[in-house]
Write a structure and sequence with these properties.
The complex is a heterodimer of chains A (485) and B (799). Chain A is of the alpha/beta class and 485 residues long. In chain A, the strands form 6 sheets. In chain A, strands 9-8-10-3-11-15-7-16 form an 8-stranded mixed beta sheet, with helices on both faces. Chain A has a 3-stranded antiparallel beta sheet with strand order 2-19-20, with no helix packed on it. Chain A is built from 12 helices and 20 strands. Chain A has one domain. Chain B has 799 residues and is α+β, with helices and mostly antiparallel strands. Among the domains of chain B are: 91 residues; 148 residues, no CATH class; 162 residues, Galactose-binding domain-like (Jelly Rolls), CATH 2.60.120; 85 residues, no CATH class. Chain B contains 28 helices and 15 strands. In chain B, helix 11 crosses helix 12 and helix 15 crosses helix 16. Classes of the chains: A alpha/beta (485), B alpha+beta (799). Chains A and B meet through helix 5, helix 6 and helix 8 of A and helix 23, helix 24, helix 27 and helix 28 of B.
Amino acid sequence: MSRPPPELDLSLPEPLARREFLRMLGAAGAATLSMSAPRALGAESAQRVPAKADACILIWLAGGMAAPETFDPKRYAPYEKGMSYSQVLSTFPSIPTAVDGVRICEGLEGVAGVMDRGTLIRSAFQPDLGSILHSRHQFHWHTGYVPPQTVACPHIGAWMARVLGPRNPVMPAFINVGQRLEGVGESEELKAFTTAGFFGGEFGPMNLPYPEEASAAVRPPKGMDPGRFVNRDREFRRLVDASPDRDLLSDHQRNSMLRSMDNAYRLLSAKERAAFDISLEPKEVQQDYDTGRFGRGCLLARRLVENGARFVEVTTEYVPFFHWDTHGKGHETVGRLHKEIDRPIARLIRDLEARGLLDRTLVVIASEFSRDAMIEGRPGSAAKDQAFNRGTTIENPDHYGLHRHFTGGTSVMMFGGGVKKGHVHGATADERPLVAIKDPVSIEDLHATIFTLMGVSPKAAFDIEGRPFYSTVDGKGRAVGGVMA
Amino acid sequence: MRGAPFLLAFAAAAAAAAADFSHEIVPILRKHCAECHTGDKKKGGLSMNTRADLIEGSEDGPVVKPGDLASRMLAVVVSADKDERMPPKGPGLSEAEVAKLRSWVADGLKWDEGFAFKKPAYEPPLKPRTPELPAAVEGRAHPVDRVLDAWTAKTGLARPAPASDSAFLRRAHLDLIGLLPTPEETTAFLADSAPDKRERLVRRLLARDVDYADHWMSFWNDLLRNDYAGTGYIDGGRKQITGWLYAFLVNNRPYDAFVRELIAPTPDSEGFSKGIVWRGAVSAGQLPQLQFSQSVSQAFLGINMKCASCHDSFVDRWKLKDAYGLAAIYSAKPMELVRCDVATGRTAEAAWPFPELGQVDAAAPREERLRQLAALMTHPENGRFQRTVVNRLWHRLMGRGVVHPVDAMQSEPWNQDLLDVLANRLVESKYDLRAVLAFIATSEAYRSRAEVLSADADEGAYVYRGPRAKRLTAEQFVDSVWRVADAYPGKIDASVVRAPAGAAPPSGLVAQPVWSDDLTGQRARLPAAGEVRTFRGSLAVHGAVKRAFVVAGCDNEFELWVNGVRVASGDNWTDPQLADVTAHVRTGRNEVVARARNAGSKPNAAAFWAQLHVRSASGDQVLATSPQWQWTESAPGPDGVVPKDAKWQPSAVVNQPGVWASAESKMNQMVAGAVGGSLLRPRAGLLKADLLQRTLGRPNREQIVSMRPNELSTLEAIDLANGAALADLVDRGAANLLRRKWDSPSALARHVYLAALCREPSPAELAVAAGMVGEAPSTTGVADLLWGVFMLPEFQTVR
């Protein structure tokens, strides 16, 4: 459980009492809505549907998680020098889970233990976007639209921020944990979808690439003690009060700027900022989560949701050729990745449940596409083969694993808020090609499901440049009934 | 005659069946069709708003022909196919209604003269027009004021009051060159009592070529989707026009030539028309050809072709064939019209949307078609082209477009005469954008106090009440903070020559491009691809070293050691490096060694530059590449030590005028910046977007951006409150200010107000500000004052 932060609690300065904050926030919610911001088509309330969940945690296994190595085990073939690629469907044996008859891959024992809390979709699929560029598929997955687009598409987290608003007016509605946006490959492409797009900056992500440093984002600047921080803000307000600009700058412009400054100060001085500090967790808890940055991110996500965050994405991080982008040494790498994700995910689910939050928190585990040992894209696709080793036999353990991008069948795991418990939806073929053969789920329908559970209509629409822009393409995404409780 | 009664009876029956348009047909159409096919609505490209619209048909061709009972319209209203039947929802037409409709069609689609379901959409004039100027009031003779004064007189509103000198000074500086005036400039302007000082200021600012170009780069980068990093570059799917664009601005070349070179491009300007291509397949509506169609339409004509790239627009008059017409001009191959990703089987015909002014020859080769489009676009009779750009400039200076939003040039201006006065000024000045800016900025309207804006100011029709305050752009904010704090980054990212053509660049770089001496004389040759050379030079420093830095660059790669310490490296000739080497230079002999490598796949030009500056107790000394430097083929070790047996020979200066101008300009600025005293400081708009600029609204330039957000968001405010970048600048600013002598805490506080807000603080402000500085001024106090002033709404707006 969280304790108050050890440093001085920042009490609100004199000129602006709590009541004043709430009054200023009341009118337009916490958001400073731009006068030129796109308007909802129809009433704001028409953009919403009854929600089954209040918060969403998206666990993003960036780089292409091979379903046959994780949630959808197929025939297992252990490594033998000289074996044929055609023998390789899964490189891990399967294990039983808490749900009778449902097996997942060895290495995910923790997740297997909580399978009875959620629904496993095994029949998600993606389009082939020609040559497969991860960030392009990630853009598609995160916005619902294939880039490039004529307008700046909002991330699904921004949709939730815009349509639902923050759960707690102090907490940013959309928080993005674990992804660096500078200094990594394809970072410009990552930035293109890690954004509120045409909704405007108010609904954009708060980016926290390093979970262990997250608290710095809500603390006074480095080297500034809380006393000085409070004093600086008080003096700033005195400067504002003394300024003759009351006569010169309109109330509207001035107030909207000051409201944003107040919102910021409020978060930086609120008790909720403790949520950003994972070091306040008991040592045992920290250790259990700490399989690395991702695990720490899961702990941070839990704390943020406990304190009122609306949408939190936690990623293993996309860096070309690292993490789930397993072009080489697939088996060995995935074994390591199992260790990285298994304990934190299982613990996250159990912690949310123990706190009574799981029923109203939707946890989604997804990736931009799956992988295969032989097929790039989908059977018959023109996608360029991007595997490092393109021989027919495996002569080296480095080549044992699933190294090609596969878009024909992917697993998505969903827990909590409004989804069936202990359920499997859809299936892929047992022999190559491992395409979705039963109840296929497109990105549009998956989004419609997530949006519907969260209370955002899949037909939510905003007027941008005189045309409607929908939460799912053309408003046509349909929630998958088979997934929902 | 026997048949006559029968015939008469038949005629009577036909007459009875021939429906009464206004009483019988209009209600049917209104009930079943109007929702999607009248007014602005054109589902499937079909409008029934007027008879002509109806007869023109849908995207799929005609729907009804007078007298033709086989018309599609009559088929779809009775179709049993759920996907085909019209209307798609509800029970559809009754049998009686269908019968009426049939008889109406049979009878030739009679339509009451002039009837339209809704007033036809506004269609803006295309050609230029010369408004009659109202008489000047009270000597306010500027054409803009004559139009606006007449307008205010008519509305009965008071004319906006003039802005104060300090507000005007700050506004003009930020609007025209994006920089705050220095306290010295402010003091001089406020003290000037000449009646024409505002006009002189405008002309003086616009004559500052480099400052002007630095500032307006951001505007054009936004509009033309150019940036120094961004999506698409990764796969070569995008190309910068940076150097070309900057040269246009700094030399103030005319706007019509500018657009001609963007539409029918040179290799330096083709990045705009090439668009942005991510790896892989894209939907039909986002092919590079359609991007060309969209970008050209939006940037130069204020037309939104995005809807029409996929289907006939529902909201304005542009059709799929218009979008594809422009695309086909650009396309090297014939293009098939694709509607919502479904091929139509029809081939697009190269055409532009205003045939009134002439048309592109669809049969001409591509380059010729593009030249024709460029000529039509910049045709003197294309008033739309002129109005679109002057409206953008008016918006930048006055805070709101005459047509607003500025990309919706199809909609009605609030004052057509004003728009035309501006457009005509553009033409009279031979498309000189600075002349248009000067024209606006010397009007009384621009000199007025900013409108006091209420929250509902955008509800209802726009009412002119003076200029509107604008939020500082990210670049203006950062430039302003740098200037007040006197703290700048080391270098810029844009590859530009920051000097007008023919002007002597500011002194700084004396290093010459060198390579091995076998380039000259008998054995003259181009360096081989992959060729590696080691260079060295030495400098005897006389006094105790105070400060030393080195600037170096290479076409293509280099590593550089100072006295055996590796201090710099680079692998991009456009990106020279600056390193502080104070710790590595010593009194006595110093040696600089560099390993330089030429890249490429065949012999090509190569060059290496280095310039070491040392400030010592006995003065400044410079070591720069020249024929006095030596080269060898022997490679240095990791510690920069070259084998003793290396054979050293004199270097040769490479004579390739102009080839490396942008890199040399950058090195020049680095040297000038590091030495100090140069005006060519880095500008935020010439750097890649960092977190701070991004936070403050500098866009991803994936899409055309013509208006930045005017509001400060909470996440931005959080970053301003505790972000490392601003905190660091504020600390450096405080330290810089405290290095100077101040008579009192008040003097320092007054300086900050003058520098940041271009005015003296009020007594109440001075009391708070001086209190923050403290009796014994501390860096924390001054830093907090700087931060507080930067956070003031007054600082964050141009008003």
